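Hi F.,

I've been meaning to write this up properly since the lab meeting, where we talked about keeping a consistent format for the predictions we share between groups. The idea is simple: the sequence comes first, exactly as it goes in, then the structure tokens exactly as they come out, then a line or two of notes. No screenshots and no reformatting. I'm using this chain as the first example so we have something concrete to point to.
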Amino acid sequence: LLAVAYYGFLASSQYITTFQFAVRGPSQANAVHAGGASALGGAGMMSPDSFVVTDYINSPQAVTDVEREVDLRAMFAKPDVDFWSRLMTVSSAEDLNAYWTRMVWAHFDLISGNVSVSARAFSAPESLRLAQILIATSNEMFRKLNLQAQRDFVRAADENVKRAQEQLTAARQALFVFREE
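Output, unedited:
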């Protein structure tokens, strides 16, 4: 009876926006262009980056990044939302992070190779806005990771070229000495 009374008369409506995406690494993109598996992911298209994105969305860093775009405390602590569902108006960062894990959920599906994300809010437009911001912040985080990986790759390649040039110079010097002898 208590559950019927709560869910029937007291509980605030919650709206969920769900989206899915696949993350492909460079080797997977080459396999797709070479006639491999579908570009939309699927079995066998698992990327370690998918786990990185999933962990990011479930992390306090995502909360911080999303808060730059939308006031999460105002979104989740509305006075017209029932007491048990809303975020307390005076809440610490830890409280907000714990609340985030109740309202936003990301999961990597090993079967499909997709990352599934659900974002809940107390109105449909807020739920959609939260999902759009999550997509944007995830893309930005992934872009930064890829940029850093590219820089590291170029730095390692430059070091290899420098080392090869030094070896070539040493070999030419040894050949010159040999010819002179």
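Notes:
Residues 124-180 form the longest helix (57 residues).
Confidence is low (pLDDT under 50) at residues 29-44.

If this format works for you, I'll send the rest the same way.

G.
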